[in-house]
């Protein structure tokens, strides 16, 4: 672009180039309407000018080119017929032109804009020139050479001659596409934030926002009000300790200290909440620190776990019954053996009774004939009677038959009691139990499962501290570990021989330790870290749910505050080690049993 382009607006040449540069600068600095006034005033003050091709004039013109082309906005000017007379480099770039000089003589219909856009621009030009009014900050679309449509913020003003005739138009526009996109994105985010806030406010899950300074609730959602029975206003006068009466402020701050110090970004806590009426329920609390309305706060998302705990307990009970179902054939065999010799012994006892009754009848006859028989005759009759009914043999065998029957009954009762202890949901209250007794009961009901596959060595320390907890659930854990060991041994040895299972117990660190070790094939180290994951199993479809060890881990860690660890040597065996505190934390499941006493009675337990 050069200064002569502007001169074409009036049909004559401007030689006072510094005035022209001042005017173009005014286009940006003081607005288009004032720029026109400067142009007109410059014509009135013109004096003698140097020829346009003088070296001084050319130097000033080059300066003018630099200034105009440095303007970041697009500047253009047209004649009365909307034919372009000039533009700056920014406008040329927008129009897909290499040099601003290429714009001279073109119209909007010659440029990349769409036909509709060109007609719109021309109509705006007419309105500006015919009505002599300035258009400021008009948003309009513009199609670029690449086909993309940009949003422009355009201002136009008419140019007039000394006779106050409109001789053309000058305009300036800025590309505000990115700004509008950013505004649209901001508006979308604001709408989404408002909608998300409404979703959170109406969520049935509890949301508590409380101050990091005094722990007082700043805000809560409707779910928190519904769960606690308090109104928003009441909760804003409370702290988390009011919902956890077993905690004081010092204990609570100690609990969330890793979050307060930035050691962790969030905390997950399982706790018990108390509502307005004093009812308690298990909850999971997810805590994180943030800012809310200019205050440093903690945000707690709280989920009621009552139903989850109930379902977990039903799953535990279902697996117990599944285990019993898998062991039922072996248990039936274990019961059948003592019942068989009980049946034989009862038959023999019946024979013995017949013999004894025969002896009694014979002795009665002898007694009735006592007056007519001498002593020798009576002794002979008695001897004949003893021989006839094999009294000496009966005397020797009768006691043994009764003793064997008692042993068979005891064995049967032992098996049934072990089954009942294992399968019965019982009272969901913590009670003291002997871990060694749990081991013996578990081995009793699982004997048929392991007796043909493995030898079992038991080394149980006596006495062990009494463990406070849930014995039926610990029985499930022990059974699962034993059965897993049998499976591993069978996978390794098949029918070629027996493996070995070692079970030991001892006192350790204020609690008791139970170790179950086998010489099976071990666990692949690549999956060792997943053995306690829910639904993870290496067994074929239909042979396992993948819930066994996951449930065992929850029972030991969550219900008893203990530890369950696994160590393995691939190809050489696995060791499970369970540690239980003698005084485990009081974690009340508060769950309904999935099998009632009546149902168990119907099953014969």
From TrEMBL:
SMART domains: HATPase_c, PAS. It comes from Crateriforma conspicua. Residues 192-235 form the PAS domain. Residues 132-188 form the PAC domain. CDD domains: PAS. Residues 330-584 form the Histidine kinase domain. It is an enzyme of class 2 (transferase). Gene3D superfamilies: 1.10.287.130, Histidine kinase-like ATPase, C-terminal domain, PAS domain. It comes from the Bacteria. GO terms for molecular function: ATP binding; protein histidine kinase activity. InterPro entries: HATPase_C_sf, HATPase_dom, His_kinase_dom, PAS, PAS-assoc_C, PAS-like_dom_sf, PAS_4, Sig_transdc_His_kin-like_C. Coiled coil: none annotated. It catalyses: ATP + protein L-histidine = ADP + protein N-phospho-L-histidine. Keywords: ATP-binding, Kinase, Nucleotide-binding, Transferase, Two-component regulatory system. One of its GO terms (biological process) is phosphorelay signal transduction system. It holds the Pfam family PAS_9. This is histidine kinase. The keyword Nucleotide-binding applies. The keyword rRNA-binding does not apply. The gene is fixL_1. Its EC number is 2.7.13.3.
